Amino acid sequence: MTLRAPARQPLEGAALRAGLVRDGLLVETGVPGLVARTAAYEAVVSGIDHLVTEAFAHLAPGYLHFPPVLARTAFRRTGYLESFPDLMGSVHVFVGGDEEHRELLRRSGGDERWEEVLEPSQVVLVPAACHALYPLLAGRLPAGGAAYEVRADCFRHEPSDDPARLQSFRMHEVVVLGSPAQAEAHRAAGVELAVGLLEPLGLDVAVVPANDPFFGRAGKVLARGQRDEGLKVEVVTTITSGRSTAVASGNCHRDHFGSTFAIEQYDGSTAHSACVGFGVDRVSLALVSVHGTDLSGWPAGVRALLGL
Ligand code: AMP
Ligand code: ZN
To answer: Would the pLDDT of 265 be above 50?
Structure first.
């Protein structure tokens, strides 16, 4: 069955956001990039999650659904703080006694820096679902490498008025670890699978070379290197007018996580890894942008694919 995207023009960000709220898909919290999702919206996300699981089932991946927080020690080793300090989020907790409690309440009641009474906890917020996986894989992989399907609520400190740029969003990734060739083949095949999954939903997508938003002056060099070496590609579509947005990404990490977390191939050499990550909230928003906020009016084929 071929489905053609209807000739609906993408809305401005503010208009799309207003429609999502007005028509009962999302509830705004007052914090940019932080939304509560209704059952109708979640039905779409579940449908997308299911399609991702199905598309990669031939890899027989292990499945891990991570909590939204990650061990601070593991996070420190991923290199995220070196590359994206501006996006991270850290969890602080209260461990004081009565006196510190009074001080905490006094400060938090006013506009004082009450976080100075808090202590860093053992955890930070997960910035990417696959980052929670690598720390668990120290040791030798099975012959033939390993595949994992991972999901997590991710946090990135990038407050924005763009309804597709959230601070808290879901990522559903498929990760392969093994030889350089296995990792590269997974990225290539996985991006094709992503396109094959998204197009029948009526999304007009393109695969483009990309780079991560590395921080600072040194980051410019890293971003250029990543792009020149073709390590990141994005599957992009138009969610809001005048802007192309990544709904999925394919990343080759080379041996970065393998060497950091002592993950070995079966022959003892350092494992390479690659991930294909779906921003399931963005896919959901892209579908609303194309088909409208009334899910009952979506094309029957799309509804069937999503199990709506
Ligand atoms: P990345 O690790 O940046 O390649 O992110 C993987 C996928 O997560 C992207 O392709 C997006 O679909 C999604 N994503 C990244 N950042 C955000 C965000 N701020 N809000 C919603 N989705 C995001
Ligand atoms: Zn990843």
So the answer is: yes
Domain ranges of the chain: 13-89+127-306, 96-120
Q: Per CATH, the architecture of 13-89+127-306 is what?
A: 2-Layer Sandwich (3.30)
| Protein residues near ligand 2, an ion, with CB under 5 A | 128, 130, 173, 275, 277
Task: With beta carbons less than 8 A apart as the criterion, state whether 25 and 152 touch.
Answer: no
Its sign, for the CA torsion 41, 42, 44, 48, is positive
Residue 60 contacts residue 146 (beta carbons within 8 Å): no
pLDDT in tens, 124-140: 999 999 999 999 999 99
pTM to 2 decimal places: 0.95
pLDDT in tens, 45-79: 999 999 999 999 999 999 999 999 999 999 999 99
Going by alpha carbons, the residue nearest to atom 2 of ligand 1 is 128
Helix or strand (DSSP H, E) at 159: none
